[in-house]
Amino acid sequence: MIARTPHLPVKILAAIIFVLGPTGTLMAQERIQISSEWGEMTAELADNDAARSLLRMLPVTIQMRDHLRQEKTGNLPLPLDEVARQTHFSRGTLGLWTSDHFVIYYRDGQVPQPGIIILGQAIGDASIFDRPGPVTVRIKRAQ
Fold it and tell me: For the segment 46-99, what is each residue's pLDDT rounded down to a tens digit?
């Protein structure tokens, strides 16, 4: 006689997956539009609590200034959730230095510990911000 392993009916298995949800980062990515007098770009948000906090805050306008000829920085009206940090970034990375200090990197590089919170990555060309001086940016959900 062959022993059979009990199997869950397909409907029960599907219900368990539906209730528990999929694991990992498989989800539709939210996009935002960042615009200024210098141009505009679209960015895809990271799948983390800080990026979701930013999305709930939109639309927002931020006064930004140049820092170290690699990034534009400015303060958000409210702090975002704290999540894991990293030290490397690439051109087009959106991040946070502190819970309310928003950064757009227009060059590749690395920051010291504790690093930055990654909020997303530009899909368009972040070099529109590669110029000296302050700029006002408007951030909203992409259409």
Answer: 999 999 999 999 999 999 999 999 999 999 999 999 999 999 999 999 999 999
Identify the CA nearest to 38 among candidates 122, 123, 108, 133. Answer: 133
Q: Which residues make Cβ contacts (< 8 Å) with residue 123, sequence separation at least 6?
A: 31, 41, 42, 43, 44, 92
> Do 93 and 110 contact (CB within 8 A), yes or no?
no
Q: Decide if 85 contacts 115 (C-beta within 8 A).
A: yes
Residue pair 136/64 in contact by the 8 Å Cβ criterion: yes
pTM for the full predicted model: 0.79
CA-wise closest residue to 117 among 64, 70, 80: 80
Residue appearing with tokens 């504790």:
114
Let me know if 104 is exposed, middle or buried by CB neighbors in 10 A (0-12, 13-18, 19+).
buried
Q: Which amino acid is at 19?
A: V
